[in-house]
Amino acid sequence: MYSEISHQLSLQELETLTNALESATAFHIRWLSCINFTLVSRNKQSPYICTDKLSHKRCEFGRWFYQINEAELLQDKVFRQIDESHQEMHQKACQLIDKVVTEEEITHQAYVEFADSQNAFFEALQSLTRHSIAALGNIDFLTGLPNRRAFNTILEKEGNRVSRVGAVSSIVIADIDFFKKVNDSYGHAAGDKVLAQIARIFSDSIRDYDTVARHGGEEFVFCLPETRCSDAKTMIEIIRQRIEDTVFESANDQTFRLSCSFGVSAFNRDIPHIEAMAFADSSLYQAKKNGRNKVVVFDNGVIPFK
Question: Is residue 60 annotated as a catalytic residue, yes or no?
């Protein structure tokens, strides 16, 4: 399961986080090597002679890490583990270095505790790195939306929930009409810009608990929990109109308009989400066949879906 914070970050923030974690690991490996050399050599002139109680906030990693909103950061278990182990590691290092300065003996137990704090810190870093890499692996890099793999996981969970509690939720498949003409007329850069812009319109138009993902090419999918087909159609009609009203621009400032077609179906205890996905796809086909720029709801005769 992803860290709550890493799961909510944007694509750019996730990339920044992953790079920062890699830098933190590299920095602390070098730092620990120098600390250990200072402890072994007992060199009082070492630049690593430091008893600063805030050294964890002044190291290369700390300067980045503590710029994050601490109130939000410390609500997350993985970040909290990093914070605690990072502080403890620096404190243990300061305590041992202080013994070098005062020419006191460094006990075996004191060094073991320092080594344990190192292990705890690196384990916490590795845990968050795995979480952030996993999150990156579930994001479509062009649009910043969840990708097909992530959506399938979300949809399966919602399908299981709907089946368990007897609720009704909806699936929507969207396809950009005549998207190939955009690439042919204005170039692939314009096509990519359109995909990103439409993705923003979609994500800005749904509720916090809804999901929209890029399913591939110019196709997008929505999972709308606790939403009957009639309500889903009302929501998607608003989105369809927003797309129709948007003026898109090419790289050389040419303007053009686009539309999207949508297929809607619902799933409940009797209709699994996999079947509903096929129903929504069939509805999308009908929308395309009937002139495009339409929202078509799959009519399966199940009253709760209406």
Answer: no
